[in-house]
Amino acid sequence: MTGVDIDRIVQLSPSPAYVVDLGRLRHNLAILDSVQERSGAKILLAMKAFSMWSLFPLISRTLHGVCASSPWEARLGMEEFGREVHSFSAAFKESDVVELLQVSNHLVFNSFAQLECFRPLWERESGRVSIGLRVNPEHSEGHTEIYDPCAPNSRLGTPLKEFEGRSLTGVEGLHFHTLCEQLFEPLDRTARVFEEKFGRYLHTMKWINFGGGHHITREGYDIDSLIELVKYFKAKYDLEVYLEPGEAVAIGTGVLVAEVLDIINNGMDIAVLDVSATCHMPDILEMPYRPVIYRGFDHGEKPYNYRLGGPSCLAGDIIGDWSFEMPLKVGDKLVFEDMSHYTMVKTTTFNGIMHPHICTYDSETDEFAVIRSFGYNDFKYKLS
């Protein structure tokens, strides 16, 4: 990962550990701040991707707030981020709405049915909490169906046909979220379809939310075109424009440090690590997804080839096959790159496997800090 001193992190880090490089995080925030300044957009942190709240004081200097997917996330955002809280879920219980109305600035419903069901609750907060509706443009840009909100029969967002005969009284914003790990061009195509279908409703709105999935801080992203798109919607419809990336905040900022525990042979050499795909990198099994390993290569590219697996009892706890220039040995450390987002927020203690330490490294000062370590009680009291 560009700008991250992985060799130094390996020297300083315990294992297993997630380590976030503060210098790289500041780099991403500077890009996002420039987008806000030049376009007038307000950018939110999607907590579902990155909720390392010890870093919220740093992030909140730049971003306008957080977007939350549950009352717990919203409460954490209110308590630790201290700026705007935007909340959405595919469906709410009444108790969720009651709680969210106390901790949110924006509350977005997924359907007209829920909007109307809870109208008596949210109308009491008129003027304090801004109400929105998530729409589904029915324009798919996704490559993996599990992460595509516009896949056929999606439960996410209200399609245009459901607007017939419905009231938008009290609704101040529309929200769409259709992207996943994508550059500008899919957003541009989606925005055109969205405007064609829903533009007639924007003249009465106060805001629009373009959702997440924007890899704004990734090399090759067309930032100038994003800025022009935001300016277009702001000027034409006289409303605020929100973006809520998660990965764009944390992309390239962190690593997962692992240690080789054993090497066995069963048809091939297999290295068992102290990290697990199912516990610590679940996207490997869900997506599927193949992480990058520092100084690791595709299987067969270098002389020494290994299958890497976790310590759990799940037979499929396989991280993948790699090759290395030198043979692995017990005690060696391996570093999985780009492991800040959608890792810590998804971890489990399946099999009672140790949760990695959560650490930071500041490349500007060479300061390494263990922010949190986990013990037996963290495992025990998650259960009952």
Give your account of this protein's structure.
- The protein is α/β, with parallel strands linked by helices and 384 residues long.
- The chain folds into two domains: 6-18 and 254-339 and 347-380, Lyase, Ornithine Decarboxylase, Chain A, domain 1 (Beta Barrel); 40-250, TIM Barrel (Alpha-Beta Barrel).
- Helices cover 29% and strands 23% of the residues.
- It is built from 13 helices and 17 strands.
- It has helices at 6-12, 22-39, 56-59, 71-81, 94-103, 112-117, 119-122, 184-202, 223-237, 247-250, 277-280, 283-286, 376-380; strands at 17-21, 42-46, 65-68, 84-88, 106-109, 130-134, 171-175, 207-209, 240-243, 254-265, 269-273, 297-298, 304-309, 318-324, 333-337, 357-362, 367-372.
- The strands form two sheets. Strands 1, 10, 11, 12, 13, 14, 15, 16 and 17 form a nine-stranded mixed β-sheet that branches.
- Helix 2 (22-39) crosses helix 9 (223-237) and helix 4 (71-81) runs parallel beside helix 5 (94-103).
- The chain is elongated.
- The relative contact order is 0.16.
- The model has no long low-confidence stretch (mean pLDDT 96).
Give a quick set of tags describing it.
384 residues, alpha/beta, Lyase, Ornithine Decarboxylase, Chain A, domain 1, TIM Barrel, 9-stranded mixed beta sheet, 8-stranded parallel β-barrel, elongated
CATH architecture of the largest domain: Alpha-Beta Barrel
Structural class comes to: alpha/beta
Estimate the helix proportion, in percent.
25-40%
- From the N-terminal CA to the C-terminal CA, the straight-line distance is 41 Å
Q: Which spans of ≥5 residues are poorly predicted at pLDDT below 50?
A: none
How would a textbook summarize the main sheet? Answer: 9 strands, mixed
* Count of strand segments: 17
What's the rounded overall pLDDT mean?
Answer: 96
Radius of gyration: 22 Å
CATH topology (fold) name of the largest domain: TIM Barrel
Name of the CATH homologous superfamily of the largest domain = Alanine racemase
